[in-house]
Structures are given as structure tokens and as C-alpha cells.
Design a protein that fits this description.
Blueprint lengths: L23 H14 L6 E5 L14 E4 L5 H11 L4 E7 H5 L3 H9 L5 E6 L2 E2 L5 E2 L18 H4 L5 H6 L4 E8 L3 H19 L4 E7 L3 H4 L3 H15 L3 E5 L12
Helix pairs in contact: 1-7
Length: 255
Amino acid sequence: MKVRYKRPRYLKPVSSHYCPGCGHSIVHRLIAELFEELETGERAIGVAPAGCAVLAYNYLDVDIIEAAHGRAAAVATGIKRCLPDRLVFAYQGDGDLAAIGTSETIHSATRGENITIIFINNAIYGMTGGQMAPTTLLGMKATTAPDGRSVKREGHPLDITRLVSQIPGATYVARAMVTGPKTINQAKKTLREAFQCQLSGQGFSLVELLSPCPTNWKMTPLQSCAWVETEMVEHYPPGLLVDRRPSSESQGDRP
């Protein structure tokens, strides 16, 4: 029998702690597939965040270090500078990257560090109970915004990926989502480009992935995927934000 689909070499055969319908497990698989396809698993080093993906090392069979809340980009920078031949990636949620870690994110891009950041945006604080995140949409309810986020009270959502794309030191910045076969395949292509950007020594890359959070959104998995595709994309439209690689047809700014 010909095998067409199997567990990737770098994805451990263990049960997941993620909630049903959560996008983290999908992204973990995509990363593991790319390690195998790009033959980089033996030299990959990840930095796990505080948040739902704090246990990423339980699933990805590569070297992973834990960073203090918000400091993943800084830790990844240190690792890459000490071990420049490694594929170094930070895996972060919207609270870790866009709240307490805003400074580290922006300054690692400003310096053009040759690292890759994988940013999971589910517009809410998942692990700690559904509090409002910097990326929470206007009108979206959270435990700390029971009437829905308002401009007057909480301000506008932070589109930090678009902000990073404006920084000259950021080489490759893109956004995708993981809501179905077509969007998952596109997410994988986007992650591949980000890893290849680093492997070719062309600098800082960041990929934002819009991910469902059925538990904290109080939806079914199918409803949450539909909500990403109809509501989240209005504020965080998927696509290439910038590609400054010299070999790219899209040289220069495309925010």
C-alpha cells in the first residue's frame, strides 16, 4: 500500500493538550513537515512562548528553549548570533508578541536579525481565560471587555504585523490563516518562504497566522473557522505585506 499521508518525522506521537478546533496543532504539523522537507530538523532551534503553546517542546521533536513572557525574539536573537548555522524560530501568541513582547518584536526587526517569528493571532488571551488581547477586534467580547472592545475605552486593535512590515530591517512579512485545506496549504507556503529567507541569510522574517480559538470565543470549531474568514480578515487581511529579498520580484515595500 502506498502511503500518502503520515506523521512528520519531527512531530512527536503524543496526544495534544490543545482544545478541539485550536489552530496550534495544525501549525505545529506544518512546521514539522517543513523541517523534514527542507532537511533542517537536526539544526532547528525553537523558542517557546508563555501562553497556550508553552508546551510546544512536547510536540516538536527539535531543540526548543523556553523564554520569559514576551522575550522570545530576544532569546532567538542570542541563539542565532551564537549559532548562525542553525534555523532559529520564535513561536509566539498575540499577548506574548504584541503586548509584553512588543519592544523585542520591533527591535529585532529594526536590527534585521536573521530569525523567523511565527505569530499565532487568535485575538484573545487563550491560556489565561479569554482576556482582551492587543489584537482583539472592536466589538469583540472578552472577560476583561464584557461589553465588547470599544475605541474610547480600550483603543484600537494593534496590527503589529503591518507595523513590522514598515520597518526597513524586516525582510519578509506575511499573513495567512489556518481554517481549511486551502488556507492551510497557503499558510505552509508562507512559512516555507519565511524559513528560506532565513536559510539564505536574508534577514528578519515574520509570519502571522490567523487561528481559531473555539473555547474562548464560545463557538464550535466550524463556527470559529467561519468567524476567522468573515470577521478577522476584515481587520487582518491575509497576504504578503512585504518581501525585500534581493532575488524577489517584489523588491521594495509592499505593505
